[in-house]
Write a structure and sequence with these properties.
By secondary structure, the chain is α+β, with helices and mostly antiparallel strands. Helix content is 43%, strand content 16%. The strands form two sheets. Strands 4-5-6-7 form a four-stranded antiparallel β-sheet. The radius of gyration is 29 Å and the shape is elongated. InterPro entries: PepSY-ass_TM.
Length: 240
Amino acid sequence: MKVLRLSTQLHKWIALVVGLQVLFWVGGGLVMTAIPIETVRGEHRAVELMPDALELGALPALGEIARRAGVAPVQAELHTTPRGPAWTLKPAAGEPVVVSAATGRPFGPMSAAEASAFAKGAYKGEARVSGAVLLETAPEETGRTGPLWRVDFADREKTSFYLSPDTGEVMTRRSGVWRIFDFFWRLHVMDWNDGEDFNHPLIIITTALTLSIVISGFILLWIRISRDLKMVRAAPRREP
């Protein structure tokens, strides 16, 4: 009886404390599993673009590019972009520098019309561009730093493409679906700041308490089943 009483009290009071978070876990898990991850990432809105081949013979050597850019890189990457071939030069300290592979200089400012055209070219669908704005600081939802162009589309998901202001490349995609998913993800991991920390003390403690609910629930179930079986065995049997 002491075990039954203790298990009942633990089960009741701990369930009262963590019950709301358990509801968030189950409800959030349902939402996150019901929405295809490809839709969350906006992959159904992305055109599979084939990059143009680089004409290496027509481009200055990397050493000359680094000299013009005034960077001593420890790592360099050459790639095609909507604004032409570009070098990303990473110095030993500081942020990477993006320059034109043809001139070794930074690309010029990009207009809203250019940003809209680049985004439209990477977008799969018939929706029109509803707005384009240069953000001096990347929004938290992008997971990036520095300025970005945000181009919005008038589709049902409220899709937004975030573009590099240097090269016009689509850096990331966001939508209303992504924001709903992100909201439930933050509830799920109990990190309401940026949703990046999923092993902090609060979630560990809550998970441990939830485990205690399950264990005490099994104890209660076993005790009650055992009691019912004893009652069935002790009941007098009628003679046929």
